[in-house]
Amino acid sequence: MDEKKVMLSGIQPSGDLHLGNYLGAIKNWVARTDEFDNYYFMADMHTITVRQNPADLRRRTLEQLALYIACGLDPEKNTLFIQSHVHQHAELGWVLQCYTMFGELSRMTQFKDKSAKHKENINGGLFAYPSLMAADILLYQPDFVPVGEDQKQHCELTRDVAQRFNSVYGDVFKIPEPYIPKAGARVMSLNAPDSKMSKSLPEGCIFLMEKPEDIQRKFKRAITDSDTENCVRYDPAAKPGVANLMSIYSAITGSTYEQIEAEFAGCGYGKFKPAVGDAVVECLRPIREEATRILADKAYLESVYKAGAEKASYVANKTLRKVYKKLGFVAR
Ligand code: ATP
Ligand code: LTN
Question: What is the pTM of this model?
Fold first, then answer.
C-alpha cells in the first residue's frame, strides 16, 4: 500500500479565527483530509511572543479546536493537537535556532511588522519565532504545509534551514513545500483593502463566530472603490475593494470572476455587497452552530486533544531522537 503524503499546519490562538484564516488555510485543509495524513495544531507557544491574557488564551485555544472540528476536520482522520502538549517542538526549536542565521531572521516581514507594532516588547522569541515554526513543521516530515500567502516566507526559511541541516548531517529532514490556495490566499480587510484581513483590524474582519447581523453590517460598509463606474468588474489594481469581495465570493461559491461579473452585470455595488454578505453568513452559519455545540462538551474536546498529542508526540519523538543522535548528544 502506498503511504499517504503528510500535510501539516497551525494557527496561533492569539485572536478569534476569522474568514482569512478559513479561506486562506482551514478550508483547504478540510478539502484534502482523505488524500493526506494530516496534522493540525493550535500554535499556543507562538502566541506568547506578544503578551497574552492567560484566561483568553486558554478560551481561544479550545474555541479554535472546536472550530477546526466544526469546519470539517474530523478528529478521526486528522491529528489535532495543542503545540505546548508536545514538548519536542520547544526542543527542536532550540536546535534549529542554532542553524538559523541572524540575517535571515532579520529579513522576516512578520518580524518587521510585529516589532513595529509592539515597540515596547521586541523580545528574543519574536525574533527567533521562525525557528520554532521550522521545528513545528520538520518534526512531522510533511510533504506539504498549507498556509496563506503571508506565511510563504517562513516556509521558505524552513526549507533553507532543513537543507542546511541535511547538508551537514545527511537526510534527516524531508524538505516541505508550501501549499497556497488560488482563491482566498490573501483575503483583504473589508474597510482597508490594502491590508490583509486581520483580527487587529476588527471592523474590516469577519470572525467565524460572529453574529449574522454583524457580518451583514460589515459587508454593507465594505469599502468599494471611488471610481465612478459602480460596476462589478475584476481589476485588483484599479478596484482593490471590489476585487477582494469578488475573491471572497469566488472562494465561497466556486464561481469564476467571469461568472460573478455576469451574475451582477448592471447591479452596482449596492446589490453586490449584501449578496457577498449573504453568501458568507450562510457559509458560516453551520460552522458557528456546530462549534457552539462542541464547546459545550468539554470532555469530548479533552479526549480529542489528548489523543492528538499522544499521536503527534510519537511521530515528533522519532525525528527528535534522530536529530539528537546526529548532533552527538548522548542517548538517554
Ligand atoms: P494576525 O491577524 O495577527 O495577522 P492571523 O490572523 O494572520 O494573525 P495567523 O495565525 O498568522 O493569524 O494565520 C493563520 C493562517 O491563516 C495562516 O495560514 C495564514 O496564512 C492564514 N491567513 C491569515 N490571515 C489571512 C488572510 N487575510 N488571507 C488569507 N489567509 C490568511
Ligand atoms: N506562523 C504561522 C502559524 C504557525 C504555522 C506553524 C503555520 C506556527 N507554526 C507551522 C504552518 C506550520 C502564522 O503566524 N500564521
Answer: 0.93
